[in-house]
Amino acid sequence: MAENKIDGMIFDVDGTLWDSTGIVEKAWNKAVKDSNIKGISISADDLKGLFGLPMDDIIYRIMPDESEETRKEFKPLCFSYEHEFLEREPGTLYPDLEKTLKALSEKIPLFVVSNCQAGYIELFYRKTGFEKYFKDHVCPGDTGLLKADNIKLIKEKYGLHHPVYIGDTHMDEEACRKAGVPFVFASYGFGHGIKPDHTIKTLPELVDLL
Hints:
About 45% of the residues lie in helices and about 15% in strands. By secondary structure, the protein is α/β, with parallel strands linked by helices. The protein folds into 2 domains: about 10-20 and about 90-210, Rossmann fold (3-Layer(aba) Sandwich), CATH 3.40.50.1000; about 20-90. The strands form 2 sheets. Strands 5-4-1-6-7-8 form a 6-stranded parallel sheet. Strands 2-3 form a two-stranded antiparallel ribbon. The longest helix is centred in the middle third of the chain and has 21 residues, at about 70-90. It is globular, with a radius of gyration of 17 Å. The mean pLDDT is about 95.
């Protein structure tokens, strides 16, 4: 990666910029209860193992024995409560996040690409005030595309020749391989890497990559 000058950084959200799983646990369990779905309880640890997947896949893994109709009815309620709860109690930011974003954004453009629903990235911006550090963002809820294609979209839209993607799961890494973009593994997050191009233990290490 050092052979080519990095000309953009693309970030995942959950497990990379903040941890919202404790709040989302409360929201999704309320959605389960209000949907009258029996025998299902969702924990923050469950979510940490699932975040990074497309939302339909997450919901299926949580309730594989429920009908497709039940899952479809649960999805908008889940989104609604998630946003409602996070508006009141935002996720926990990882240490030195703003300092790192400020330093990076003064040198290269920053972007967000996450497999989330429409409005989630905007909620993150609203609760942190960090939109000023990012040039653009995309997600399946906006484009209908999954992470690999959304990474490509950002790369092509902004003419990036040597961007990197920062994420915390092997699913992020697989998306990077499909998109042809180096993967920087945030080892402080939720998941694990396979053969990342670079590993960071803390956010400020990203500044050193430049």
